[in-house]
Amino acid sequence: MRESIRILFLAAEADPFVKVGGLADVAGSLPVALQNLPIKAGRNSKLDVRLILPLHGSTKINRNDLLKIKNISILFGDVNIEVQFYKYLHWKIPVYFIESDLILNASTIYSNNPTNTDQQKYALFSIAILKILELQEWQPDILHANDWHTSLTLYCLRFLEYYRSKRIKTILTLHNLPYMGGDGKDILEKYHVVPPVITKLPSWAKTQFLPLGLDSADFIVPVSPSYAQEILTTEFGCGLETYLQSRKNSIYGILNGLDQTTFDPKKDPYLVDNFDASTIQRRKNNRRELQKNLGLPCESNIVMFGMVGRINWQKGIDIAIKAFDLIDIKNWQFVLLGSGEPNLESEALDLQERHPDNVRSVFRYDERLGRLIYGGADFFLMPSRYEPCGLAQMIAMRYGCVPIVRATGGLRDTIQDGKTGFLFNGISSEALLLTIERALAVFNHQQSWHKLIRTCMNQDFGWSVSAIKYRELYQQLLIKDFQIESTN
Ligand code: ADP
User: Fold this and answer.
1) Centroid of ligand 1 to alpha carbon of 137 (angstroms)
2) pLDDT of 267 strictly over 90
3) 392 neighbors 309 (Cβ within 8 angstroms)
């Protein structure tokens, strides 16, 4: 057993520096949870975890707190791109940032379609990580990448002479399989990265960043046990199911955890009234604030549904919209907060125009409004077509907002039907409506309803169990003769 293991955690976003979605929640909390795991001498290794991020223009950081370490340049075609490497000293663990005009000046963290700009930006970040590591003293035993944005680091690791002797091991956590980065043939060529010759990947996948990362990773970690099974099927495998089946023994589903300090209704500064499982009657004050803020009738005798998340096909926004056109009850309100696909945003706005006293559709990133929805709405909807893990339903439960969700991926793994929420199968507004009816039967019976809210709030969604599972994987990787079940 190694006394200590050094891990470099690679991500495109991390809370509190920059956040678009759940990846930021995970990258901001898992490395800290790993670092703080209790250690039993002789039984577990101590983990030295560091985080590396791109320095986006919108990163919330005081630049005076950044310590400049190195400048390097990376060849793109026959042009050198300048890259700066910083260390940030004032967080719970050491954080490195990679800066370049390409990253700093991009207008969004992710574009809606992974265009050349995103590919060029994240390829630069991924390649720079390795180049920079060569130049510094601290060396990781394990590179832990996340999603397509950092997949190329794992792929490029195989080719760099410097790393051959170091035997660095790799993990790729898979938060969302369909987001593969798009065909990056041109970008790979310009960065002088050669696609694999021998691989079990289908030919179309050889120039996409995520498949290259999957093919290079020693372990692939989908973010829930159910999703780990689903990606092996035609329905969810996105054309990689046969490849993934061949890697079955290197795939381990581990459920994401939640930073329960950040998401704590008892202390949340964004709420107008804090509460815990014994004071759930206070939730109504958050609901009133929400209604006031959004210009909804300040009714108390209503049922309020909420949704917070990226507005796209995955999340089933269209299914919810159609359901509210068909809903057959009188006193209801629906608050949607998110941003994403323009056609779905416009459908959500049309819904609000058709039901001006019932619906508010808000298209922006707004942490405070999100917390008020979690802490004030009665039900949280996630009719997702697929959901690798989903954090929003866990946050909702912690805030006593009862989830109504499609039974898929992490939603299936975190919610018990009738006990901590309501699950439905099928992908239709009718199925959602039938489940809403089932949920309202409980809502209308106060004693059962309060019991349900309290059971939700008492669930433990922290990192304790999952962080231990990651540590077990790290330890397993570093057992001397561990061999990747390689496809090459
Ligand atoms: P995904 O990672 O697929 O985007 P998750 O449910 O795992 O979805 O995580 C989404 C996270 O981002 C949650 O913390 C959610 O509250 C937050 N979030 C998403 N969109 C918004 C928004 N527009 N305003 C505030 N918070 C948001």
Assistant:
1) 36
2) yes
3) yes
Which atom belonging to ligand 1 lies closest to the Cα atom of 256? 7
- Atom number of ligand 1 nearest to Cα 374: 16
> From atom 22 of ligand 1, which residue's Cα is the shortest distance away?
365
Ligand 1 center from residue 105 Cα (angstroms): 24
Q: How far is the CA of 391 from the centre of ligand 1 (A)?
A: 7
Q: What is the pTM of this model?
A: 0.94
The strand pair at 95-99 and 79-88 is best described as antiparallel
The pLDDT confidence band at residue 117, using thresholds 50, 70 and 90, is confident
Q: Three-class SS string for the chain?
A: CCCEEEEEEECCCECCCECCCHHHHHHHHHHHHHHCCCCCCCCCCEEEEEEEEECCCCCCCCHHHEEEEEEEEEEECCEEEEEEEEEECCCCCCEEEEECHHHHCCCCCCCCCCCHHHHHHHHHHHHHHHHHHHCCCCCCCEEEEECHHHHHHHHHHCCCHHHHCCCCEEEEEECCCCCCCCECHHHHHHCCCCCCCCCCCCHHHHHEHHHHHHHHCCEEEECCHHHHHHCCCCCCCCCCHHHHHHCHHHECCCCCCCCCCCCCCCCCCCCCCCCCCCCHHHHHHHHHHHHHHHCCCCCCCCEEEEEECCECHHHCHHHHHHHHHHCCCCCEEEEEECCECHHHHHHHHHHHHHCCCCEEEECCCCHHHHHHHHHHCCEEEECCCCCCCCCHHHHHHHCCCEEEEECCHHHHHHCCECCCEEEECCCCHHHHHHHHHHHHHHHCCHHHHHHHHHHHHCCCCCCHHHHHHHHHHHHHHCCCCCCCCCCC
Residue 79 C-alpha to ligand 1 middle, in angstroms?
37
The preferred substitution site among 310, 339, 363, 382 for testing ligand 1, maximizing ligand atoms within 8 Å of CB, is: 310
Ligand 1 pocket (Cβ < 6 Å) reads 21-23, 25, 308-310, 337-339, 365-367, 370, 390-392, 395
pLDDT digit string (tens) for 38-84? 998 888 899 999 999 999 999 999 999 999 999 999 999 999 999 99
